[in-house]
Amino acid sequence: MYLLHTTNLTLKSFYAEIPKYAILSHTWNKEEATFQDIQDRGKDGWKEPAGWKKVEGACAQARKHRWDWIWIDSYCIDKSSSAELSENINSMYQLYEGAGVCYVYLSDDPRDARSDFRYSKWFTRGWTLQELIAPSASVVFLDRSWKEIGTRYSLRDVISAITSVPIGLLEDGDLAKYSIAQKMSWAAFRKTTRPEDRAYSLMGLFDICMPPIYGEGGAKAFMRLQQDI
C-alpha cells in the first residue's frame, strides 16, 4: 500500500511492517489531486493541481495529532495499474478498519451538527457507508475549515437517524449481528458515480472479494455480488 507522509507530502510504498496511519474519508469533487500529481511534485513545470488544498488540510490535521502517515483514496492508489486498483478496492474495508483514526472531511458542511450536518453529501455516497462502519478506532467529523464537529460516538444518535445504521453498530462495530437484508437497506438510497461501484462498495460489509470489472454495468456487478454473498 502507498502512504502519504504528512510532513513532506511524498508517497512511500509498504508491503510489510506497515506503520500506524491516519485515513481520510471524503467526497470527491469534479477535480481532485491524483497519485500522479503527488509523484510529479517538485519536478520542473509542476503546478498545484485542483484539490491540492485538501491534501494539505488532511496532512495538517494528521500532523496536529502526531500522525506521520495518512492514506487518502484519491491520492494513494495508482489507478493506471488495474491490478493495484483491484487490490485496493478489495482491501478498502480493511484499510479503514486498520487505521489509527479516520477523519471525515465534510467540505459542504458548516459546524452546526444539528442542522446542515444531516444534509451533507457525504451521507448519500456509496463508498462512505463502509468508511463510516469499518474503522475500529475513532471517527472524527470535520467541517470545511477542518474544525471538529464531533465523533462517530458523540454524534451516534443523529448519524443513526440519517443513515439507518443502528446505534449499536456505531458503538461496537459488530457487523455479525446484522442480516444481509439489513446491510443492504443501509445502502438502498446511496449513489455512486460509476454504476458498478454500488456493488463494489458493499464488498467489505459482506467480507467478500471479487474482481472489479468496470464496464460490466451495475446490474451484472450486483448479480455477482449477490452470488458471492
TrEMBL record:
Membrane-spanning ranges: none
Domain Heterokaryon incompatibility: 21-112
Pfam families tied to this protein: HET
Top-level division of the source organism's lineage: Eukaryota
InterPro entries reported for this sequence: HET
Entry protein name: HET-domain-containing protein
Organism: Dendrothele bispora (strain CBS 962.96)
Organism taxonomic ancestry: Eukaryota, Fungi, Dikarya, Basidiomycota, Agaricomycotina
